[in-house]
C-alpha cells in the first residue's frame, strides 16, 4: 500500500479530477420545446429565493418593492458587467458549470446566442404565451423562437434624430426628414467646421439599425436551416449611401458616439446631430454645456422604402436553464416589465423604452428642460416605437457577426467599400456558422 | 490474569520505542509531501489540469442539429480541425505578426532603456539613486488597466495636452489611429515595465564584487569603459532573463489593447493573439478553437524564447 499509494493515488486523483472537470465543462444542450421536464411551482407557503443578474444600476431597490409585497418569492439582485463586456462571459461560464442565476439580463439580439448555448428556459412551458398582449408585438417577435418564448422584453431603443439647434441654425437647416436631406446638411456643416455625426468603423450596430429601418432582413429561419442575405436591396441602398457620405468625408470615422473623444468634441459644439436610440437622451444630457441646445426630431427616412424608425439595443429578463423556480421567476419578470410600478422603478434604474405600449412611464410624460422643454418622449419616441421593421430577426452569432462586419468596415479607411465589406462579411459569417455546426445557405438574389 | 498483565506491560513501551525510532523516519518521508502539499494541490488544480484540459479541448468539436442545436448537440473528436481553423483565420495570423513586430521594436528599446537607467543609477556619480530608483519603478506599481486608462486620456484628441502641444509645433498626431495605436500600446508597456526590468539589472549589478571595480580603476578605466568591459558582460544573465520574460509578455499582451479598445476604433476583438483566444472562448462560446489558439500561442512563445536563448548562447561562445 505505502509504496504505490502516493504517486498512484496522485495519478488517479489527477485523472479522476480531470475527467470530472471535462465532463462538467460540456455545454448544456437546448431541449426541444415541450420535451423538457417541467419544474414544479413552489407549494403554498414555501419560501423561494431567486437570484437575478443584471447590469442596470440599483436594481435591488426595485426588487425590494417586489419583495415587500411578495414575501414568499424573494429576489436577490447581483450586479454584473454589461453584456459582452463581461456579463455574458460570466453567465456562459456559470451555465457550463451547471449553475447560474434564475433570472438574467439578456439583450434581444443575444437571445439566439444563449439558445445555441442551451442557456434559456422556454417560458411557454410556464404560461408565457398568455402574456403576449401586454408587450410590443415587434419585441415579442424577437423573444419567440421555435414555438417557444425565451425571455420577457424589458426595454427597447426606438431611434430618433437628436440635433444641435444652434449649429443647424448656423447653416440654415431644419431637422431633415430624409437621409438625402441629412447628407445635404452634412455638407453645409462641414463648411461650418462641424460634423453631422460619427460613423463608427468599429461598431456595426448603428449600420444594422439603419439597414433595419430600410427594411432589411439579414437572416431567415428556414426548414433546412438558416438563410443569410446581407446584400438585400435595403442593405445595399444603405451601404451605398454611407459609402458616398464617407467618400465625401462627411462623417467622423475615428471614433464612435458616446466614446470619450465624442464627448470632448460634443462639449466643444463640433457634433451637430446624433441618430440614436431613446436612451441616448441621458448620455446627451451629460455633455458639458449642452443644456438647451439640443432638440429631438423623428428619425430621417429612406426615400422610397422602409419604416419611420429603427431600434438600437433592447433587453429582456430571461430565465436561465438551470433555474429551479421558473414559475416564480416568470411572475417576477412579468411584474417588473409590465406593471406600472415596475416600469417606473426601472426607469429610475436606467432602462430604455418601455416594452409595453400601454405605459411609457410617468417620468416620460413630462417636458424635459435639457431639451428646452420639448415633450419628445410622447411626441417622437412613442410613435417611433410603433413604427418598426417587424421582420428583422436575430441569429445565433450576432456578436461574432458584428465583429466580422466591423473588421470589414475598418477596411473602409484603406479604400474598400462598405458594399464589398458586406460581401466579404457574409462569407465569413457563413463560415463561422458552419464552424458552430449549424446549417446555413445564401438566399437567392 | 497476572501473566497477561506481565506480557502486556512491556508492549506499549516497545510500541512507544518503535514509534520513537520509526517516527523520525516516517516523518522525514511525510514532511516534504506535507510541505509541498498545498503548493502541489494548487499547482495541479490551477496550472497542470487547465493546461491538460485545454489540450484535450483543442482536439474536440461541437456538432449541432437544428437551428439552435435543439435537435441534438454532441462533442466529437476533431483531429487538427481546430488548429486548421485557427491557422486559417487571417486575423489570428495578422495578430501574431503584429505581436512579433511589436516585440522586435519594443523589447530591445525597453531592455536598452532599463540597462541605461540601471547603469546610470549604479554609477559612482549618481545623485539620490534611491529616489530615482523608486521613481523609475513606480509605474510598475500601477495596475496595467489603470495605467492604460490614464494613458488613454493622454491619447484622446480634445482631451490630451500632448496632442494640443504637438499641434502648436505643427505636428498632427493621432495616437489612437490605426497607424499609431500599436506604438501607443508599446509606449504604455515600456512605461510600465522598464522600471521593473531595471530593478533586476540593478540587483545583478550590485552582485559584482567591489575589487573588480578597484582593479579597473587602478588600470585607469573611466566610467564608460567600466560599463562596457565589466558591467555589461557581467549582467548578461539578468539581460537574458528580462529579454525572455519580455518576449513571453509580448505574446501575452491583453489588458492594454482590451482597455484601449474603448477609445480606439483601430483595435478589434482579435488585435493580439490572447485577445483573439479570449473573444473566441468567452464571447463566441467557442472554447475548442480558443483552446487551439492558446496552445499555439504557448508553442510560439516557447519557440521564440528558445530561439533567442540559442542565438545568444551561440554569440557568447
Short description:
The complex is a heterodimer of chains A (445) and B (317). Chain A has 445 residues and is an alpha/beta fold.
What descriptors fit this protein?
heterodimer, A: 445 residues, alpha/beta, D-Maltodextrin-Binding Protein, domain 2, 7-stranded mixed beta sheet, 3-stranded mixed beta sheet, 16 helices, 12 strands, 40% helix, B: 317 residues, mainly alpha, MetI-like fold, two-stranded antiparallel ribbon, 14 helices
Largest pleated sheet of chain A? 7 strands, mixed
* Total beta strands of chain A: 12
- What name is given to the CATH topology of the largest domain in chain B? MetI-like fold
CATH homologous group name of the domain at 48-156 and 312-381 in chain A: Periplasmic binding protein-like II
Q: Report mean pLDDT of chain B, rounded to a whole number.
A: 86
**For the record, what CATH class of the largest domain in chain B applies?**
Mainly Alpha
Provide the CATH topology of the domain at 48-156 and 312-381 in chain A: D-Maltodextrin-Binding Protein, domain 2
What is the tally of beta strands of chain B? Answer: 2
Write the layout of secondary structure elements.
The complex is a heterodimer of chains A (445) and B (317).
Chain A: H1 2-25, E1 48-54, H2 59-69, E2 73-79, H3 87-96, E3 103-107, H4 111-116, H5 137-141, E4 144-145, E5 148-149, E6 152-164, H6 165-170, H7 179-191, H8 205-214, E7 219-222, E8 225-228, H9 233-247, H10 260-267, E9 273-277, H11 280-285, E10 294-298, E11 311-319, H12 326-338, H13 340-348, H14 376-386, H15 398-410, H16 418-435, E12 440-442
Chain B: H1 2-8, H2 10-57, E1 60-65, E2 72-77, H3 81-88, H4 90-122, H5 129-137, H6 144-155, H7 161-168, H8 181-206, H9 210-218, H10 223-234, H11 236-251, H12 255-260, H13 273-283, H14 287-316
Antiparallel strand pairs in B: 1-2
Helix pairs in contact in B: 3-14, 4-8, 4-11, 5-8, 6-8, 8-11, 11-14, 13-14
Amino acid at each position: 500500500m505505502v509504496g504505490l499509494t502516493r504517486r498512484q493515488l496522485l495519478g488517479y486523483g489527477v485523472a479522476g479530477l480531470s475527467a470530472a472537470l471535462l465532463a462538467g465543462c460540456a455545454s448544456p444542450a437546448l431541449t426541444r420545446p415541450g420535451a423538457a421536464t417541467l419544474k414544479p411551482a413552489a407549494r403554498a407557503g414555501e419560501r423561494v429565493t431567486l437570484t437575478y443578474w443584471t447590469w442596470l444600476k440599483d436594481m435591488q431597490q426595485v426588487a425590494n418593492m417586489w419583495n415587500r409585497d411578495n414575501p414568499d418569492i424573494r429576489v436577490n439582485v447581483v450586479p454584473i458587467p454589461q453584456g459582452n463586456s463581461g456579463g455574458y462571459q460570466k453567465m456562459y461560464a456559470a451555465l457550463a458549470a451547471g449553475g447560474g442565476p434564475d433570472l438574467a439580463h439578456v439583450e434581444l439580439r443575444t437571445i439566439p446566442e444563449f439558445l445555441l448555448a442551451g442557456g434559456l428556459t422556454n417560458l411557454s412551458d410556464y404560461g408565457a404565451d398568455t402574456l403576449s398582449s401586454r408587450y410590443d408585438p415587434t419585441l415579442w417577435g424577437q423573444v419567440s423562437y421555435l414555438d417557444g418564448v425565451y425571455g420577457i422584453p424589458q426595454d427597447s431603443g426606438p431611434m430618433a434624430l437628436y440635433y444641435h439647434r444652434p449649429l443647424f441654425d448656423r447653416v440654415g437647416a431644419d431637422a431633415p426628414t430624409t437621409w438625402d436631406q441629412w447628407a445635404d446638411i452634412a455638407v453645409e456643416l462641414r463648411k461650418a467646421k462641424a460634423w453631422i455625426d460619427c460613423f463608427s468603423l468599429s461598431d456595426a450596430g448603428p449600420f444594422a439599425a439603419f439597414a433595419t429601418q430600410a427594411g432589411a432582413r439579414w437572416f431567415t429561419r428556414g426548414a433546412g436551416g438558416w438563410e443569410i442575405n446581407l446584400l438585400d436591396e435595403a442593405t445595399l441602398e444603405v451601404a451605398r449611401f454611407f459609402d458616398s457620405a464617407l467618400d465625401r468625408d462627411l462623417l467622423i470615422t475615428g471614433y464612435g458616439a458616446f466614446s470619450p473623444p465624442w464627448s470632448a468634441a460634443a462639449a466643444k459644439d463640433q457634433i451637430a446631430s446624433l441618430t440614436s436610440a431613446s436612451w441616448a437622451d441621458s448620455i446627451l444630457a451629460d455633455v458639458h454645456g449642452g443644456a438647451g441646445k439640443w432638440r429631438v426630431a423623428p428619425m430621417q427616412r429612406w426615400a422610397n422604402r422602409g419604416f419611420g424608425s429603427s431600434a438600437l439595443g433592447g433587453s429582456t429578463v430571461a430565465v436561465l436553464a438551470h433555474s429551479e423556480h421558473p414559475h416564480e421567476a416568470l411572475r417576477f419578470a412579468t411584474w417588473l416589465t409590465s406593471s406600472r410600478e415596475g416600469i417606473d422603478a426601472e426607469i429610475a434604474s436606467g432602462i430604455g423604452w418601455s416594452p409595453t405600449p400601454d405605459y411609457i412611464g410617468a417620468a416620460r410624460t413630462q417636458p424635459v428642460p435639457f431639451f428646452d422643454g420639448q415633450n419628445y418622449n410622447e411626441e417622437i419616441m412613442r410613435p417611433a416605437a410603433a413604427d418598426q421593421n417587424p421582420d428583422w430577426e436575430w441569429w445565433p452569432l450576432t456578436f461574432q457577426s458584428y465583429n466580422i462586419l466591423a473588421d470589414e468596415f475598418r477596411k473602409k479607411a484603406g479604400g474598400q467599400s462598405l458594399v464589398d465589406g458586406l460581401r466579404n462579411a457574409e462569407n465569413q459569417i457563413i463560415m463561422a456558422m458552419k464552424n458552430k455546426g449549424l446549417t446555413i445557405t445564401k438566399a437567392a438574389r | 490474569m497476572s501473566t497477561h498483565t506481565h506480557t502486556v506491560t512491556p508492549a506499549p513501551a516497545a510500541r512507544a520505542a518503535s514509534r520513537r525510532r520509526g517516527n523520525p523516519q516516517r516523518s522525514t518521508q511525510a514532511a516534504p509531501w506535507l510541505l509541498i502539499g498545498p503548493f502541489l494541490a494548487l499547482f495541479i488544480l490551477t496550472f497542470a489540469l487547465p493546461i491538460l484540459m485545454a489540450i484535450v479541448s483543442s482536439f474536440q468539436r461541437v456538432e449541432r442539429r437544428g437551428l439552435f442545436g435543439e435537435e441534438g448537440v454532441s462533442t466529437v473528436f476533431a483531429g487538427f480541425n481546430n488548429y486548421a481553423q485557427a491557422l486559417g483565420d487571417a486575423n489570428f495570423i495578422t495578430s501574431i505578426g503584429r505581436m512579433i513586430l511589436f516585440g522586435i521594436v519594443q523589447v530591445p528599446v525597453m531592455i536598452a532603456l532599463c540597462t541605461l537607467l540601471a547603469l546610470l543609477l549604479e554609477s559612482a556619480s549618481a545623485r539620490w539613486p534611491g529616489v530615482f530608483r523608486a521613481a523609475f519603478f513606480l509605474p510598475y506599481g500601477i495596475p496595467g488597466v489603470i495605467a492604460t486608462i490614464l494613458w488613454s486620456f493622454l491619447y484622446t484628441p480634445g482631451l490630451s495636452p500632448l496632442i494640443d502641444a504637438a499641434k502648436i509645433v505643427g505636428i498632427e498626431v493621432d495616437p489612437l489611429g490605426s497607424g499609431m495605436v500599436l506604438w501607443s500600446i508599446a509606449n504604455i508597456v515600456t512605461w510600465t515595465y522598464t522600471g521593473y526590468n531595471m530593478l533586476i539589472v540593478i540587483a545583478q549589478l550590485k552582485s559584482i564584487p567591489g575589487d573588480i571595480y578597484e582593479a579597473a580603476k587602478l588600470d585607469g578605466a573611466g566610467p564608460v569603459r567600466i560599463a562596457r568591459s565589466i558591467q555589461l558582460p557581467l549582467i548578461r544573465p539578468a539581460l537574458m532573463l528580462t529579454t525572455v520574460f519580455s518576449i513571453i509578455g509580448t505574446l501575452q499582451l491583453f489588458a492594454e489593447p482590451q482597455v484601449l479598445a474603448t477609445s480606439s476604433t483601430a483595435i478589434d476583438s482579435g488585435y493580439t493573439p490572447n485577445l483573439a483566444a479570449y473573444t473566441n472562448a468567452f464571447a463566441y462560446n467557442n472554447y475548442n478553437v480558443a483552446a487551439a489558439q492558446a496552445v499555439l500561442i504557448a508553442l510560439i512563445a516557447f519557440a521564440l524564447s528558445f530561439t533567442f536563448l540559442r542565438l545568444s548562447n551561440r554569440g557568447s561562445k
